Amino acid sequence: MTTIKLHNTRTRGKEVLNPINPDDVRLYLCGPTVYDRAHLGNARPVVVFDVLYRLLRHVYGTDHVTYARNFTDVDDKINATALARKEAGAPGTLEELVQERTEETISWYLADMAELGALEPDHMPRATAYIPQMIAMIEELIAKGHAYADGAGHVLFSVKSYKDYGALSGRSVDDMIAGARVEVADNKRDPMDFVLWKPSTDELPGWDSPWGRGRPGWHIECSAMSHELFGDSFDIHGGGNDLMFPHHENEIAQSCCAHPEGDFAKIWLHNEMLQVEGKKMSKSLGNFFTVRDLLDQGYPGEVIRLVFLQTHYRKPMDWTDKKAKEAEATLRRWRALTTGINPAPTASVAVIDALSDDLNTAGALAELHKLASAETAADLLTSARLLGLLTDKMGTWSQGEDHDLSHHEKSLFDARQVAIETKDFAEVDRLKTALIAAGVEVRMSKTGVELVPGPSFDASKLDAI
Ligand code: AMP
Ligand code: ZN
């Protein structure tokens, strides 16, 4: 069997994956807080873990891998969007508006991630469906002396009660206090303590609990959902490296204290950030664009996916238009080469080996380029599909690429010939402007005219010419 090696944040080195149960390899990824459309950075972990999921299914068998990715559907930011809608006059109670917001955001998310070729996880638990499990876990933590209620509706986790706190990111508690914004509150016995449960107002979503009507803190959600789905120990836990502290440290503290007989997650996998000019793309910095923005601009999901795969998941990456153009050209070439070809029975060993070496997607793509150069189309097709590329579902964008452009090339060429005689270039300019507006790159030389559809190509705009 193929040996898969993954970089484990916890041990800071590459480790061989030895599944707890090879008949059921379990993978948990922290999913989005569903208050708005996913930005491109949010899509990075989705694509990275989709590649891992596909690799695991290839190695252990489709039915022997379970992938869970949650939806955080209870959060201040969601409440804030619902409040804003209410203030703008939207009908319905606040609770209904919250639900409306989470439902629409989840459906956008699923549609956008599907465009990127991401398979749906086996489980997509919503935090609001696991409140009893969260309450039970908090009670367990209180009973074991790891958490305390403040008598005013809050329950806090006592960080000092867990001696391994900070082991994941390798930082001491003192360093963490110095480096992070730790909220100091009167009800905390220690500034590092974090919220497991907090009170809610009558209008906002809330649930009855032994500490009054309230709602869970963010960290307990993942601990409770992963435990319900996977038990005390599972194989791989993932997320962006921005979640390492405090979210993942807190998940570990909660899960290991509530269930000390288990290991929680054996391997911790963290993707690096998608950046804009050296800074993390994030909602709060305002330097973001959504996946849907790019799709609407005409970038096919498959092109976005290929751009992601070119950078190793543990390296920061930038989105650039140049990368997208190159990826599009590559995919057009590969699609042309594999049209009408039956896929080979198995993926190339070199591609599998590259992916098995800590998801070396750049190495896997280099192998695909070799297969394309050698024109071994059947192998290229099967291996590309292992990476979620060249699938039938994702290919519609590349069809009709010759959409009448040769006819427009001829019109433009003829118009220019006339203009050279008459010295009146108005018609040439009109055609060029219309083509550019349709997202076509116009290349004119002495000998001819070449029209190349760009990423924002919109065939419907050609009709007006
Ligand atoms: P959030 O909804 O902010 O909790 O983020 C959802 C997921 O997206 C988490 O796994 C984050 O680590 C990840 N994420 C957020 N911003 C970026 C970024 N700029 N690059 C890569 N991953 C990100
Ligand atoms: Zn989480």
TrEMBL record:
Residues spanned by motif 'HIGH' region? 32-42
Give the reactions, separated by semicolons, that this protein catalyses.
Answer: tRNA(Cys) + L-cysteine + ATP = L-cysteinyl-tRNA(Cys) + AMP + diphosphate
Under SMART domains, the record lists: DALR_2
- Gene Ontology, cellular component aspect: cytosol
Q: Where does ATP bind?
A: K283
Q: Which GO terms describe its biological process?
A: cysteinyl-tRNA aminoacylation
- Look up keyword Zinc and say if it applies: yes
Q: Which UniProt keywords apply?
A: Aminoacyl-tRNA synthetase, ATP-binding, Cytoplasm, Ligase, Metal-binding, Nucleotide-binding, Protein biosynthesis, Zinc
Chain ranges for the short sequence motif 'KMSKS' region as given in the UniProt record: 280-284
| Cofactors that this protein relies on | Zn(2+)
Q: In this protein, which residues make up the domain named Cysteinyl-tRNA synthetase class Ia DALR?
A: 350-398
Which of this chain's residues are annotated to bind Zn(2+)? C30, C222, H247, E251
* One GO MF term attached to the UniProt entry: zinc ion binding
Q: What are the boundaries of the signal sequence? A: none
Give the co-factor note.
Binds 1 zinc ion per subunit.
Q: Which InterPro entries match?
A: Cys-tRNA-ligase, Cys-tRNA-synt_Ia_DALR, Cys-tRNA/MSH_ligase, CysS_C, Rossmann-like_a/b/a_fold, tRNA-synt_1_cat_dom, tRNAsynth_Ia_anticodon-bd
- Keyword field contains Iron: no
- Location, primary (coarse class): cytoplasm
Q: Which family does it belong to?
A: Belongs to the class-I aminoacyl-tRNA synthetase family.
Q: Sorted alphabetically, which HAMAP family does this protein's record hold?
A: Cys_tRNA_synth
Q: What is this protein called?
A: Cysteine--tRNA ligase
Organism of derivation: Phaeobacter inhibens
Cite the source lineage: Bacteria, Pseudomonadati, Pseudomonadota, Alphaproteobacteria, Rhodobacterales
This protein's encoding gene: cysS
